[in-house]
Specification:
276 residues, alpha+beta, 2 domains
Length: 276
């Protein structure tokens, strides 16, 4: 076959065919109509043009996606800022409500005891004991008139007493702290005693009035308040409620277990009685 293509006859045949093809194309070129070459080029360039258009549309869609993503991200950021503002307002609202409750307690106590002078303080730290609180730290100290021994209240409720003071802070022992002793009485029977606690009872969040006569009328549900004896705590501050009466030392006495009236874990603000 290769030999045939190299012969003069093959070359003459190829020249004739080329001449015939050119003769067929010239009229079309002269009339300006599409030629087979143009058609052939169209077959090649058509798909390329379609691909180019698709890529262009894809690029536009891609850019649009990022533009939409940026807009969405901006809206999310705006929502986050709004949520943060609402949360801050909610915290402020709860703080105001808590302060209002404290002031209401203060005003009621002030009406009954106009000679009392108070320093408002907030709790900034606690010292736990078991499931309860043995002591906590206040954000007020001696510059606010607070001294060791001052009673700490929440309205009519006794919280504890100031144990240590710096210029700007105070340490308060709660009424379940074993170091605290409170002259107390039961409001219905009038029986008196000293409310204190032990490490075991304090770990359960309880105080107690030990060494009560076995014939005591004090029983579950009775209210324990300060008696005012000794002059440390004002009279009639609420300490808590009797939840049980159990045998005491060598069965000669009984002990009244007292549940404090205030949940120390829920405390945020208190009143320090600086003058009575």
């Amino acid at each position: 076959m290769n030999r045939f293509l190299k012969t003069p006859a093959a070359r003459a045949f190829a020249a004739i065919m080329a001449t015939l093809l050119l003769g067929a194309l010239l009229p079309l070129i002269i009339r300006g109509t599409s030629s087979p070459v143009t058609s052939a080029l169209g077959l090649v360039t058509g798909p390329l043009q379609g691909l180019s258009m698709s890529l262009s549309n894809a690029a536009k869609d891609f850019a649009g996606y990022f533009a939409s993503a940026d807009a969405l991200r901006q809206r999310v950021n705006e929502r986050d800022e709004e949520i943060a503002e609402l949360r801050a307002k909610l915290v402020e609202y709860h703080d105001v409500m808590r302060k209002n409750e404290l002031y209401e307690e203060f005003l009621e106590l002030k009406r009954e005891n106009p000679q009392f002078q108070f320093s408002e303080a907030s709790i900034i730290g606690i010292e736990p004991i078991g499931d309860s609180v043995a002591a906590f730290t206040l954000n007020r100290g001696s510059v606010s008139g607070i001294r060791a021994g001052h009673p700490v209240l929440l309205g009519q409720y006794l919280i504890g007493r100031v144990a240590e003071v710096t210029l700007t802070t105070s340490t308060v022992y709660t009424i379940i702290n074993p170091r605290v002793h409170i002259a107390a009485y039961e409001t219905l029977t009038g029986e008196i005693g000293v409310a204190n606690s032990t490490p075991e009872l304090a770990g359960q969040g309880l105080a107690a009035i030990p060494q009560l006569e076995r014939t005591t009328a004090i029983t579950t549900g009775y209210l324990i308040c300060t008696s005012g004896l000794g002059g440390v705590y004002p009279k009639n501050l609420i300490i808590g409620t009797v939840i049980d009466v159990v045998d005491g030392d060598q069965n000669f006495y009984v002990t009244a277990l007292v549940q404090p009236a205030v949940d120390f874990h829920a405390l945020r603000d208190v009143l320090v009685l600086i003058e009575q």
